[in-house]
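Subject line: Sequence and fold of a protein, written as structure tokens
Body of memo: The sequence and its backbone structure tokens, given next.
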Amino acid sequence: MKKFNFLFLLLSVFSCKLQQNPEKTLKEAYRPFFKTGAALAVEHTQNGDRSMRLVQQQFNSIVAENCMKPESLQPNEGNFDFRDADQFVAFGETNGMFIVGHTLVWHSQVADWMFENEEGGIVSREVLIDRMRTHIHTVVERYEGRVQAWDVVNEAIDDVSGLRKSKWHEIIGPEFIELAFQFAHEADPEAELYYNDYSMILPHRREEAVSLVKNLQEKGIRVDGIGIQAHYGIDYPDLHEFEASIVAFSELGVKVMLTELDISVLPFPTEEMSAEISQQYELEASMNPYSEDYPESVDQELASNYEDIFKILLKHQDKIDRVTFWGVNDDHSWRNNWPITGRTDYPLLFDRENKPKEAYYRLIDLVTKK
């Protein structure tokens, strides 16, 4: 009987300790260091979605995955559709989250009419500037004081060198970037304004981003942060270059963020990793090796990659403002269909049933275990 009472007492004490020290969530564990966020698809903010609770528990920042892109908000000139964006913003407000609007100016996911005149030809520079101003003012003013930050310009740097020869650039010239930041600041002077791009660890893209922001700063244009998209692979990135970019961007006096973090476990169809959305390749069996499930060894490797990245982020915690994952769980990830449609990927911290993976526990342990 005494032995039974002792065991009961021991179990009671252990249970009490568990209640006093529950396992921390991601946002709780990293709150002293930087914000942790997720990109939300439309279904995430609709009542009844099974991932809503996970988002509420784990993240303190959200970004719109698609519902705030130009073609979603203004599919036809002057015809704005804010239904999904309103729902997204309301979800963030209800849950006290740092809300990021994505994105105001981008070469992709913008309706063709933006660049065309009434005859279907190329619109004039003056008209395109006016259309840009109208779009940015209408969107940003609607959410003034509610959306705390905007990805103002997205992916303006070319994969080879210099600025991307997008329609924005071809019609307006490189000034389209400063105009976009100017219009966004006019619409909401209190909102934070970011430049966002992929492959920012590549030296030429890093240098171009530094040059771009310096040029804006010299002209008195306010830029509050640089977003490193961070679409990586199981054997990518080069951690030395990753760290070099964090340092280089922070020296500009702006916030540094990982804005679209995911790590694909699948082979990439080309030698050079990129996140250019227009890339598409045919589905082959060799490119989809884990169609049913992926092995424990790959799960461990994925966890180690995330751990290595977060070690560098914690080393430079004074420079990092936010780390946002591009998606909530593996089932929602765009990596299942890019750059090859129909694959099964496992790039995030939570599996298709919203259960935490080894990578999640590694990241929690980094800051909770002494």
Q: What stands out?
A: The two ends are 38 Å apart (CA to CA).
